[in-house]
Structures are given as C-alpha cells and as structure tokens.
C-alpha cells in the first residue's frame, strides 16, 4: 500500500490541496481511494469521486467522500 499512498500524497502536494480546495477524483480503485484519504488529511473542503463501479463508490462514501458520481462506460 505504500505506492498508492505515495501517489495520493504526491497528487495532493502537486495540486496544493488546502482547506479551501474542492477535489474531484476520477477512479475509485486503490489509488483513487487512498488519494481521497490523502486529500481529506490535507484538509480538502469537498471531495467528489467518480467511477463506473457502484460497489467502489459505496466504499468511497463509507470512507468519507462528500459525494460520488457513477459514470457510464
């Protein structure tokens, strides 16, 4: 799990995530979910995550996503 965590932290640093930031994450796989958790730790005001898999979106909601969006293939 170190590689997905490093991706999430790097993305949040690169995007300058602060308490004023709204974040959209495309993909609720392992990297997307850990990026969501990193954005939350960085203090992001609102986190939305999108994916094609409703099961992964449910997990994202349970982990603290403010909103989820299911896209079609």
UniProtKB/TrEMBL annotation:
Keywords: Metal-binding, Oxidoreductase, Zinc. It comes from Artemisia annua. GO terms for molecular function: metal ion binding; oxidoreductase activity. This is Zinc-binding dehydrogenase. InterPro entries: NAD(P)-bd_dom_sf (IPR036291). Belongs to the zinc-containing alcohol dehydrogenase family. The keyword Zinc applies. It comes from the Eukaryota. Gene3D superfamilies: NAD(P)-binding Rossmann-like Domain. Its cofactor is Zn(2+).
